Amino acid sequence: MIRGLALLLLFTFCGKLFPAGESECGALESCAEYKADVHDLFSLQRGLGLFMNYCSSCHSLQYLRWNRLQKDLDIPENILKEDLILNPDIKNSDYMTFGLNNDDSTAWLGASAPDLTLRTRVRGESWVYTYLKSFYEDASRPLGSNNLVLQGSSMPHVLASLQGNQQLSMDGSIVKVSEGSLTDEQFDRSMKDLVNFLAYAAEPIRSDREKNGIFVILFFVIFTAVMWLLNREYSKDIK
């Protein structure tokens, strides 16, 4: 009885998460697998460049400070000020707030540009990676584009100049109709860099946490061995 009730609740919960005809990746059966590597400094720097060039005009990173970004990504202060911040009124210790917010959003779009600081924590790295690659032309949308992963997305295909234009075929798959400035392999690598940077922004301490985790595990292994040897010595006297 209890087992049947648990299964019923599970099916009900999954039904609310993924409506009929949809999966975790929208119209796609599954997301393309991708796991970020926040230890790759050069990838993070390339991802930052992509974010600033293609995302920052609309999206902010309101939970990440400029000086934390400078320290973690090893950015010289003159480049931070002259090429990234650009505004002399903004301090290094300020949060990375720019782009459109709820007040700035155009009413005709009916949606605001979300803050992206925690996007990979909410959606997952594989979801964001697949989403960035799944835009296609859709004349019925206000900005002329749609996305297989998030149908009805208000975001335009800002990366079309890099990826090229894509259209939806009769069978529901995406086909490329024009080339961008990057090859498919280069574009995939660029999107991995961008998602990598967003994964870092979601948890800047992640790199330190993963490194420290190794020492913590080693400590517990050594501590367990010492305690086992100590317990063996004490057990001799008890016997």
Polypeptide structure, described:
With 239 residues, the protein is mainly alpha-helical. The chain folds into two domains: 22-204, Cytochrome Bc1 Complex, Chain D, domain 2, CATH 1.10.760; 205-239. It is 49% helix and 8% strand. The protein is built from nine helices and six strands. The strands form three sheets. The chain has a two-stranded antiparallel ribbon with strand order 1-2. Strands 3-4 form a two-stranded antiparallel ribbon. A two-stranded antiparallel sheet has the order 5-6. A hairpin with a 7-residue loop joins strand 3 and strand 4. Helix 2 crosses helix 8 and helix 6 (125-133) runs antiparallel to helix 8. It starts with a helix and ends with a helix.
Q: Distance N terminus to C terminus?
A: 50 Å
CATH homologous superfamily caption of the largest domain: Cytochrome c-like domain
| Distinct helical segment count | 9
**Secondary-structure element sequence?**
HHEHHEHHEEHEEHH
Radius of gyration: 24 Å
CATH architecture of the largest domain: Orthogonal Bundle
General form: extended
Strands, count: 6
Secondary-structure content class: mainly alpha
Order of strands, main sheet, comes to 1-2
What is the subunit arrangement here?
single chain
The stretches of 5 or more residues where confidence is low (pLDDT under 50) are 1-23, 104-108
**Main pleated-sheet profile:** 2 strands, antiparallel
Number of domains: 2
Strand content: 5-15%
Q: What's the overall average pLDDT, rounded?
A: 85
CATH C-level label of the largest domain: Mainly Alpha
